[in-house]
Design goal:
The protein is an alpha+beta fold. The protein has a single domain, classed as YerB-like (YerB-like fold), CATH 3.50.90.10. The chain is 15% helix and 33% strand. The protein is built from four helices and 21 strands. The protein has a ten-stranded mixed beta sheet, with helices on both faces. Strands 12-11-10-9-21 form a five-stranded antiparallel beta sheet, with no helix packed on it. A two-stranded antiparallel sheet has the order 6-7. A hairpin with a 6-residue loop joins strand 14 and strand 15. Helix 2 packs parallel to helix 3.
Length: 330
Amino acid sequence: MGVCGFLLLVGLVKISNINFKSKTEQVVAPNPAPILEAPCLATNPLSGVCLKALPQKQQVVGVMFDNSPIARPQKGLDKADLVFEAIAEFPYTRFLAFYFSENLPDKIGPVRSARPYFVDWANELNAVYAHCGGSPDALNLLKKNGAKDLNEFYNQQYFYRSWNKVAPYNIFTSAELLKQALTDKNWFENKIGFATWQFKDDAEMSGRPETQEISIDFGNKDFAVSWKYNKVSNSYSRFQADHDVELSAKNLVLMYVDFIVKDNVGRREVKTIGTGKAVVFLDGKVVKGKWNKSTEKSRTTFFDELNQEIKFNKGSTWIEVVDSGVKVAY
């Protein structure tokens, strides 16, 4: 019994020592390895956004979008890197949405017909121009320029008709079909053949205003547009005819041009070469200045009042093309 008692006492001492150590010794967790950001090997030339991988083949694709009330909501417009909006026939506006080939969405449309000034903007980006027919001037200009012309009339295999839309608002395309067209027609390029804009990082939160709103009256309530600034996302949300259409942009531009009405249908001639007034909205601020395009092939660029090229935020840009007759407030 004496031996048993001695062994029991030794066991209790060992247990108490273990408990004591567990309460007094601190366990130091190993420091986690720092997460290193992969270097940006390439950027989207239209938006300045870093690409996940270095593209071996590339191209810019421009798609003509309908903006009739019956065509809304459009598909794929929210994924565009760059958008021009301008009047096609008063007061109907249309969009020319540009995508870098690495950023094409699954469904795009409704696709509508070409206008010559939209052809000019596609030309400066050496872009494939996807459309369905067009005005006589636009079709002649595409032929004259030797453009990468993807007209649905002669390339139906790269487009399709949607069963839940009525004609002519039912023509769509997709990333798969457009990439097939680029491959079939040998339109992919090894490098981008146009001047890129300058891009910057977003302004710090402390330097952003609480609100900002821009309204554009194209002459009909169905085409009235407003853009509302969001401080947190540092972007502008688009509203059409007082409805949120789930479109946004990091940069918004008012580009003032001269319009000339050409016929009784309301088709217009637009001055795209030269210079004119511009107002740029980014970081919740207003930057007044001008736009400049010296030749047919040169890039439309934007400058502030000190003649310094404006640096855009990385992300999508919308250009609202207006003339002096369009009512604008901000």
